[in-house]
Amino acid sequence: MNEMELKQVVAEVVRKLGSQPVIKTKAAPKAGIGQGVFENMDEAIKAAKTAQQELHVMPLEFREKIITRIKEKIMENKEVLAQMAVHETGMGKIGHKILKHELVAKKTPGTECIKTRAWSGDQGLTVIESGPFGVVGAITPSTNPSETVFCNAIGMIAAGNTVVFNSHPNAAGTSNFAVQLVNEAAVEVGGFENLATSVLKPTVESGNMLFKHPDIQLLVATGGPGVVKAILQSGKRGIAAGAGNPPVLVDETANIKKAAADIINGATFDNNLPCIAEKEIIVVAEVADELIHYMTSENDCYMLQGEQIEKLVQTVLVEKNGHYTVNRDYVGRDASVILKGIGIEVPESIRCILFEASKEHILVVEELMMPVLGIVRVKNVDEGIEVAKLLEGGNRHSAHMHSSNVYNLTKYGKALDTAIFVKNAPSYAGIGFGGEGFTTFTIASKTGEGLTNAATFTKSRRCVMADALYIR
Asked: Residue 191 in 3-state DSSP?
């Protein structure tokens, strides 16, 4: 199977799973006290610190055994975890969340990222090794509540750290169940509990304690601008995976039919919850009508007109003191649910809502995290790059483009300078789903680490033996 055929298979799987009904499974478990879940943050940190002292002296081979079992547990529980997340948060699609868990299990790297560098010469031997920070404090979102826990835990344990999670309160049950599975996996291969810990009922106060606690050496935030700001102001080493408003640019040289399918597959994956997903379309006017035609005729999109767009603004945004915020009731919801909210009845098969607007329109500027895409026409690719740069907002998170002109692709990539740049594919190819490379659910665009893995959660140590241990 060649690369194009593989991507077509992935796209078809995404489309089919996105339209599946709720999967019937056994009753979802409820996370309770035990197996890494504690009543308060102080207890969670103390337990993780004790566990880290044991993990630190364990060989990489032992860490990899734990990671292998974690991945097996993810695959064994992927349906339950997906269903828990949708039921608890009201966001996303069960079928797509199953795919996310499979991606974490199959493409999250472990100890293979931990590399040693060495110099041997007339003056002896010097090695640089990667060691753990100790206990990591991690903030996780409601959009990927268990996926982020697993992905972070695998990388952090591989690096020799333990991790304390303060999950989003709206997804605490799902995140805590993931923490319990991590510890079950460790015990089942002869290890010990509390490699990952959390609190039963996370709050802003428990998060603040995590930020300030002297036993936390590294903070990792995956979430919105508020939590990222708190991490960066904590005075500790911080890795911040913040917001993005990823634009997708389509120029006149693109395969327009394929671009339409790729954009909608990416933008509707888990109802646009991923931070990497296409949030707005910028298209050269010459091919704009053709792009819209393929989206509406072949990709189950509904095009809003006139007053319907203003109704959408009033529905999915909340105005307070002249400022707009996203209406959380519609984040990650199906397109048909959002359309019903503005009085339009459509089949459940409708996947995405489209509308045309200027680059200043509030629904284009605001990151909505729902299957709604504004379309902005531009006269040429250079104007398109400028508009995309404006709308991306300097987050340097993700950007996408459809073009067969390598020079246009190069100009766009340099201008936006994002952690992820996907060319001629759905956005999810950027995290290894239908694209090469490892996956992660913590993309640290704000602090510059990009796609995090085990090596991200280590610190460098230099060891020197002078005038010995060289045999040249």
From this structure: coil
